[in-house]
Amino acid sequence: MKKILFATTALVASTGFAAAQEMAVSGFAEMGIFGGDDIDTQFHTDVDVTFTGVGETDGGLTFGFDVDLDEEIGDNNAVTGGPESGATRDDSDDGGATIFVSGAFGTLTMGDTDGALDWALTEAIIGSSLRDDHEHAGYNGNAGLDGIYDGQVARYDYAFGDFAFAASAEVPDDEDLGDPVLGLGARYAGDFSGIGFSAGLGYQTVENDFDDADIWGVSLAGEFYEGFEAIVNYSTLDSSVLDGDVDHTGLALGYTAGAITVAANWGQFDFEDDTEASGWGLVANYDLGGGAELQAGYGNSEFDGFGVADDDDFSTYSFGIAMAF
pTM of the full predicted structure? Predict the structure, then answer.
């Protein structure tokens, strides 16, 4: 992704140390069409801009921030009557902003960032599509218990060799709500005889006035010979609100040859009362070079045992060009 530099080195005299500082802007734009069951085929446009600031102290301490303007401003293609439109601002506090400090001790990140479980696990999805139409009712983004309160997460992570671990917390903005969301995660990434392999394990828990819940999950991913890739993801959530366990299983397979990537994914949520939400997705990407890529995506969602929701099985699709800057 290309970045435009706004500043290079600066001397911060008021703090008593010199700091190498850099500001950059990156982003992407999308244009195409989308549609699906009960969705008329229509145009899609979206622009996302991220500002990044990075600095380093004389002692080697790195610090910085990211601000995602797509999170701050909204979506050009929000559903009519929905919470967002092209010029609607997100009301969440510091939505899309993260701040970090990093050194030999590890990295501390705060803001709109992932909890330890999401940080550790690999999502069972490969490739890209406009509006993420290859996602579906059985897709799990590994958010775990993130966002139960105001979405402001503090995460500490530390890496040594091929291993890394993390701990996270999300505190309530009102002490009467209950305890913080606490999380732990670990991951490993290595190479065996030319086969890239990674594994992740995560856990989060919370106890408050409206839920007593914990979730754990594991993921395995491999990049094999000749451009093949596979991801397996499993998690189980125990929640007093849902009155039982919710198990999720996800699988993704992909193949890349030159500029072409094709992939498929499947996922399913199994609830304690024997209801199910599942789906599958397809994606095809063609890299045009220079940051531009043709993207096509399709997703199909199915519901079983939800009563009236059984009639809500649906599919979505999109096709267009994504441009990274």
Answer: 0.85
